[in-house]
């Protein structure tokens, strides 16, 4: 690094050396930190009148960071949780630079002194047993697509998996012989094992028959892996067919949260 004041080389080291090699952050965390910097750097360059490739560490002043956080909330209409998520990435970057460059310790302390904003915790909704039974009865299992939808809804009910976890689930993580289990890769690259009910195991066995262990379990109409947005759509679609649905539970479950009773 020729000029230790330039911000660009520090960001490169942070993303490759710290996030990947040292901390082994999950792909989702890496993407979140990357997106924060993608939003921040053009904003800071425009606000300060800097050339983005010549920005120095101190050009990213605490004042600009605070203005960026206000921009996230006011102009981009994000909530307090998203604002805090962006700030955590910047705290991590400041700490990395401060640890490797003592001349920037004062700047590091000022950035890391920017506080997180208190946010209200989201109330987690749930479904009554009768509501869940009605939801599972909604798909017409005589068609291939709706048979898949039934398997998906039953799996979410059984495992409590997040939409993103279900979307990325591969056949190799299913054990469909007794005792039937599924290994779910969750946040922070943490693996957990969940038992599967006999009914769930039987339905999933039919769904994945003849496919390789590397294939994702749930696939779309074009035989491509489903996304969490596709899973959201499926849950929303069948929820709207069920009468007597409690609106607060519908919002929580269809947003990709966990299902359960």
UniProtKB/TrEMBL annotation:
Keywords per UniProt: Chromosome partition, DNA integration, DNA recombination, DNA-binding
Keyword Ion transport: no
Domain named Tyr recombinase: residues: 122-261
One GO BP: DNA integration
Record-level Gene Ontology MF annotations: DNA binding
Domain Core-binding (CB): residue ranges: 5-98
InterPro entries per the UniProt record, alphabetical: CB (IPR044068), DNA_brk_join_enz (IPR011010), Integrase-like_cat_sf (IPR013762), Integrase_catalytic (IPR002104), Integrase_recombinase_N (IPR010998), Integrase_SAM-like_N (IPR004107), Tyrosine_recombinase_XerCD (IPR050090)
Highest taxon listed in the record's lineage: Bacteria
Protein name: Integrase domain protein SAM domain protein
Organism: Paraburkholderia graminis (strain ATCC 700544 / DSM 17151 / LMG 18924 / NCIMB 13744 / C4D1M)
């Amino acid at each position: 690094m020729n000029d230790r004041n330039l911000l660009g080389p520090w960001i490169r080291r942070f993303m490759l050396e710290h996030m990947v090699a040292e901390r082994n952050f999950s792909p989702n965390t890496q993407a979140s930190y990357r997106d924060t910097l993608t939003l921040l750097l053009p904003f800071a360059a425009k606000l300060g009148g800097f050339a983005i490739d010549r920005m120095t560490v101190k050009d990213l002043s605490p004042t600009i960071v605070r203005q960026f956080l206000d921009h996230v909330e006011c102009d981009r209409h994000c909530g307090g949780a998203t604002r805090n998520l962006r700030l955590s990435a910047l705290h991590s970057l400041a700490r990395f630079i401060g640890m490797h460059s003592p001349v920037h310790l004062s700047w590091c302390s000022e950035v890391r002194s920017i506080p997180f904003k208190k946010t209200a915790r989201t109330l987690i909704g749930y479904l009554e047993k009768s509501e869940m039974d009605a939801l599972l009865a909604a798909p017409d299992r005589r068609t291939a697509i709706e048979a898949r939808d039934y398997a998906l809804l039953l799996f979410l009910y059984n495992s409590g998996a997040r939409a993103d976890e279900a979307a990325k689930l591969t056949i190799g993580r299913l054990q469909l012989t007794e005792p039937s289990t599924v290994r779910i890769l969750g946040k922070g690259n943490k693996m957990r094992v969940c038992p599967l009910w006999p009914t769930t195991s039987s339905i999933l066995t039919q769904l994945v028959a003849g496919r390789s262990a590397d294939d994702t379990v749930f696939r779309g109409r074009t035989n491509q892996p489903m996304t969490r947005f596709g899973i959201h759509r499926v849950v929303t679609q069948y929820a709207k067919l069920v009468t007597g649905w409690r609106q607060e539970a519908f919002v929580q479950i269809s947003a990709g949260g966990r299902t359960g009773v």
